[in-house]
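Lab notebook page, bench 4
Experiment: in silico fold of construct C2
Operator: M.H.
Input chain length: 353 residues
Purpose: comparison with the prior construct
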Amino acid sequence: MKKLFIPILVIVAALLCYLLFWPTKIDPVAYTPAKKPEMSGVLAQNSELSKAELIAKGKINGPEDVVIDPEGRLYGGTQDGKIVRILKDGSIEIFAETGGRPLGLAFDASGNLIVADAYKGLLSIDAAGKITVLLTGAEDTPFRFTDHLDIASDGRIYFTDASFKYFQKEYLYDLLESRPNGRFLRYDPKTKITDVLLRDLYFSNGVALSQNQDFVLVNETYRYRIKRYWLKGPKAGTSDIFIDNLPGFPDNITANRKGTFWLALFTVRNDQMDRMHPIPFMKKIVSRLPKFLWPKPKPYGFVLALNENGEIIKSLQEPTGEHLKEITCAREHDGFLYLGSLHNDRIGKYKLE
């Protein structure tokens, strides 16, 4: 028995040393999240998204953002670096292959599909599927996580680099670190000039312009909030908080250009993660564990409608996550809301009242 006991002690000691002292990739700081809001009132649990039609179920892999062209064809970027196009009859074709991870999508005035590719940067794809690289970095700092975008009527592209430190596959490290590694930028295709509008953002994610394009919103996923950057008026060039302490992780945000923003929440808040945030040492230990032991996102479908005053006016949910979950995009088009997902194998189509 003694002979068996000693090796076990050695193994346990080695594991403890690894968990407590092994060098880790992250440099976490303490952060104390506000108490999450109650799921009541406009946030009261419902199952509205279970009514959504499912498009291309089992035929696509992670259409993180979706967009519709003038002919009614649906586009989504998938995990294997493809941008697929779904025709009106439901058939699927490959529109382009970026070789990276296409995330944010938007058509410009010339019909080019502008893509925020996590690994390849800001891209432009013409009607024939030819890819042109517009931008791969700014201020001598390469993009590591080009994420989402919106395009103004003057053609300028507003977009985010979620983290200058971590790549897309490492987004959970950014969550654990709790440092402001994100940027919000503007690119002018006419002049080729890039402006960094905001720095020190906590995982800068979705981008959406207001109805009059006097301000633009940018999500800070790991602070459960949305910032507003003013483009016109006396506050032009400054930013403030548009909405704070959201009930989940804000991912992409889109605008219907009629005064409503559609905010996709990847999932609801994670109590275990919120309790861990004030303790950097604990976050270091978690970062050393195999990822299957990390806190898991609850399978949940969640979309909010916001007005231009930062008020939640509608909540659409699917609490089981069986029909729709990990929603990363909600885009309004012709009376429907199209719902993309980072990991799911389908696109939702929800009829708006």
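Observations: Residues 49-351 form a domain with the Neuraminidase fold (CATH 2.120.10.30). Helices lie at 2-21, 171-177, 271-276, 280-288.
Next step: discuss at group meeting.
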